Prior knowledge:
Layout: E1 4-7, H1 11-24, E2 27-33, H2 40-44, E3 47-52, H3 63-72, E4 77-79, H4 89-97, E5 101-102, H5 107-114, H6 116-125, H7 141-151, E6 155-159, E7 168-171, H8 177-192, E8 197-201, E9 207-215, E10 221-233, E11 236-242, H9 249-265, E12 270-278, E13 284-290, H10 297-304, H11 308-316, E14 332-339, E15 341-342, E16 348-349, E17 352-353, E18 356-358, E19 365-369, E20 376-377, E21 384-392, H12 395-408, E22 410-412, H13 418-426, H14 428-431, H15 439-450, H16 454-472, E23 491-493, E24 505-507, H17 509-520
Parallel strand pairs: 1-2, 1-4, 2-3, 4-5
Antiparallel strand pairs: 6-7, 6-8, 9-10, 9-12, 10-11, 11-14, 12-13, 14-21, 15-16, 17-20, 18-22, 19-21, 23-24
Helix pairs in contact: 4-5, 12-13, 16-17
The structure holds adenosine-5'-diphosphate.
Adenosine-5'-diphosphate is lined by residues 131, 156, 162-166, 200-203, 206, 208, 232, 235, 275, 277, 287-288, 437.
Amino acid sequence: xLKKILIANRGEIALRIVRACQELGVTSVAVYxxxxxxxxxxxxxxxAVRIGPPPSSESYLxxxxxxxxxxxxxxxxxxxxxxxLSERDWFARAVRDAGLVWIxxxxxxxxxxxxxxxxxxxxxxxxxxxxxxxxxALRDAKEAAAIAKRFGYPVLxxxxxxxxxxxxxxxxxxxxxxxxxxxAKREAKNAFGDDAVYVEKYIEGPRxxxxxxxxxxxGTMISLGERxxxxxxRHQKMIEEAPSPAVSSELRNRMGEAAVxxxxxxxYTNAGTCEFLLARDGSFYFLEMNTRIQVExxxxxxxxxxxxxxxxxxxxxxxxxxxPPHIEPRGWAIECRITSEDTANGFLPSTGRINYLHxxxxxxxxxxxGVEAGSEVGLFYDPMLAKLIVWGASxxxxxxxxxxxxxxLTVDGIETSREFHLRVMEDDxxxxxxxxxxxxxxxxxxxxxxxxxxxxxxxxxxxxALIADAERLGRLSGSAGSGAGGSRGSAxxxxxxxxxxxxxxxxxxxxxxxxxxxxDR
Length: 521
Ligand code: ADP
């Protein structure tokens, strides 16, 4: 087993890896920028190394400085988490060349699937269905128009090096194509330094369903089932669940087999995810492979009972994957990404200090966070503060439980996506599982106009007054005058029997009682 792991990341995923190390008896080493000197991941790790100033380009993206730090502290491996350097094949190679173990797939596998077009070619070669389209970089708008005509509108222009929804444009007819191509190329060039763009048929109303795979260094590669990630805004996932309401056991096996076939063809080991579009008619198309642990991995952990981050470390240590090839999910898990965004105001980023934080608890609730009360939230990094994850015996129970947990959550000092998630959990279509990747864009206006109810406004006002009062009395660590604002105070739920239909927003007595007790302290 590896003995000492340097974690080349920050926030909730760095803390998640620290926790896996602790349970495995492995020493963890955090790295940090000056903005994170007091962050939870730094404090909880056994050791910590400063890398540089706040901008990622001068800290978390400095591959060589990170490898140097690992060598200096005597680490035997590097875990990259997600984002930052996690999918850079040069970094995986440099780690290996420095005599360290890379906790992830081989650099060659990352390179083989790193570009969308290369991955498409590999998928076709291994008999995995892809969205109809091309793999060659477009020369100009004329060529794009000719190809679009062949596949039929609407089409999607996609950056070969794309990620995070950047460099992508839907084109409905020929008049739009030149403008869309320019925009996609410009965005791709800015984001990835590569302006290669290709064409895919635009699939109407599909679901985003992805398969988690896990492979060892001895030839075993298995599927751990699917995650449904259709609740997206601007191609960014907001809510994920496992299993998917649209996937039968039979489809799960077929998609799982396709993902395993692809991963094997790519020479893959360790944990990875194959993303698919699941069309309304039940056909599925491979989109791309993410060669890292994903943000949404906890929902798979909760329904399979397999600790994915620990298994990343075990597999990298040379252990064999001991699980059967197909694992049926048990119960239902949902994850909400709690971001520092003002969802009522166009999802504007919100910055400031978290003055007060109450974390939900109780049965089936998991909180993976990179922040705590007192944390400063700035603009240097991703707005995701935490992930709230719940498990229930059924989807209905998981929805009710998530609603209850969101009501318990109180964040004061910055705006968060909490209210937005409450509205989604109350939404009839979401509760019926009737979602696709365009659902949120379609539904957002009515979701936002639902919020907040009169009761919520009332309890929010009382909560704000109580927090301001507590601040005046010096019982909160907040700065002067920051009593207003924040994602707090809301409806309570009379959820009762586990039937999501019985969710009804009533005033949040529990939350008010908590704030009152704070005042009495
Ligand atoms: P990125 O790497 O930028 O995230 P993806 O290829 O994973 O790009 O696509 C991101 C999202 O865009 C998908 O989750 C899906 O919502 C949508 N999408 C991608 N390809 C198509 C397509 N051919 N038709 C319809 N929607 C698509």
